[in-house]
């Protein structure tokens, strides 16, 4: 029996600028203020502008649903914070697909999820480490073509089994 691939070709659109300053990034960020469907990041002089495609958003929502279902099932208070900007001034700025505060609302989320369709997931970790990431993990979904997601833990909380 032939199986239809879960994902044929990701429709994300990505623009990358190299050798840019934090000040240039902040100007671009201000220009996109209030624009939905655009995610910006900065690290080591590189500005990335991402417009997630349908498949990206689909998998982001599925993973978000699974996180919320797990927390509800385990009785864990979980506050979804979406793709809020997380940054360390002058060093790194990221907007992940989904993020959560565990226990109570905080200025920075405890858990962040990023869907990645390319093999550059591990290269993106430096951005998270620069903003104070404590732990990270990768997972894969899909059989014929893997969808990689990254879970980034940015604060200490009790692990749940």
Please describe what this structure looks like.
The protein contains 3 helices and 10 strands. Mean pLDDT is 79; it is low at 143-147. It has a domain at 53-153. The chain has 161 residues and is an alpha+beta fold. The chain is 25% helix and 32% strand. It has a 5-stranded antiparallel sheet, with helices on both faces. It has a 5-stranded antiparallel sheet with strand order 4-7-8-10-9, with helices on both faces. The chain has helices at residues 22-31, 54-74, 121-130; strands spanning 13-17, 39-43, 46-51, 78-80, 85-88, 92-95, 98-102, 111-116, 135-141, 147-153. It is globular, with a radius of gyration of 16 Å.
Brief summary of the model shown:
With 161 residues, the protein is of the alpha+beta class.
List the SSEs and their pairings:
Layout: E1 13-17, H1 22-31, E2 39-43, E3 46-51, H2 54-74, E4 78-80, E5 85-88, E6 92-95, E7 98-102, E8 111-116, H3 121-130, E9 135-141, E10 147-153
Antiparallel strand pairs: 1-3, 2-3, 2-6, 4-7, 5-6, 7-8, 8-10, 9-10
Question: Which properties best describe this structure?
Answer:
globular, 5-stranded antiparallel beta sheet
């Amino acid at each position: 029996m032939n199986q239809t691939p879960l994902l044929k070709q990701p429709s994300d659109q990505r623009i990358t600028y190299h050798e840019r300053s934090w000040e240039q990034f902040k100007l671009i960020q201000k220009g996109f203020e209030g624009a939905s469907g655009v995610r910006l990041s900065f690290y080591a002089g590189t500005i990335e502008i991402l417009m997630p495609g349908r498949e990206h958003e689909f998998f982001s929502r599925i993973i978000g649903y699974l996180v919320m279902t797990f927390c509800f099932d385990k009785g864990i208070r979980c506050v979804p914070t979406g793709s809020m900007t997380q940054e360390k001034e002058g060093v790194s700025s990221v907007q992940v697909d989904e993020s959560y505060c565990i226990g109570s609302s905080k200025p920075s989320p405890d858990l962040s999820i990023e869907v990645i369709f390319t093999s550059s997931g591990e290269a993106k970790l430096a951005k998270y480490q620069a903003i104070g990431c404590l732990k990270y993990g990768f997972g894969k979904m899909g059989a014929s073509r893997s969808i990689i997601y990254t879970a980034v833990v940015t604060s200490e909380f009790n692990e749940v089994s």
